[in-house]
Design a protein that fits this description.
alpha/beta; 5 strands; Rossmann fold
């Protein structure tokens, strides 16, 4: 590989994904979608910040599908704690509010998916996250 080429992150196979959403229907739908993908393994899901921080530290996901409105997520230092507990993970922000796209991306999310988008958008975001090299990535 030429020295000027930046080394891309090598994903484990299958990719390890953690789902963090306090809406059980959303978590279940994401789990069903991802379970059908041969290169993806859901390693857990959490419905609150404390469970997310614990799961991120112990399950070591490659990607965290993160509800941007998860209770206490935007409290003092919560995102920083998440990044410290699982620095290798790429964050994909999920929200029902498309206006949260820019704040999520500015905060270091590798991608943003509106919860009303078609399921293919989640899969596309997983691919995008693989090449992400921005803040926290």
């Amino acid at each position: 590989m030429p020295p000027q080429r930046q080394r891309q992150r090598q994903w484990r196979t299958p990719r390890r994904v953690l789902i963090a959403d306090d809406e059980p229907n959303v978590s279940a739908a994401l789990h069903l979608l991802l379970a059908r993908q041969p290169d993806v393994r859901v390693v857990g899901w959490s419905a609150d910040l404390a469970a997310l921080l614990h799961a991120a530290a112990t399950r070591r996901p490659d990607v965290i599908l993160l509800d941007w409105e998860l209770p206490d997520l935007h409290a003092d230092g919560a995102l920083g704690h998440l990044r410290q507990s699982c620095p290798q993970a790429r964050l994909i922000a999920l929200s029902t509010h498309d206006e949260q796209r820019q704040p999520a991306l500015l905060a270091g999310a590798a991608a943003f998916v509106c919860k009303t988008d078609p399921p293919a958008q989640v899969l596309a975001a997983l691919e995008l996250a693989a090449s992400y090299t921005g803040v926290g990535g």
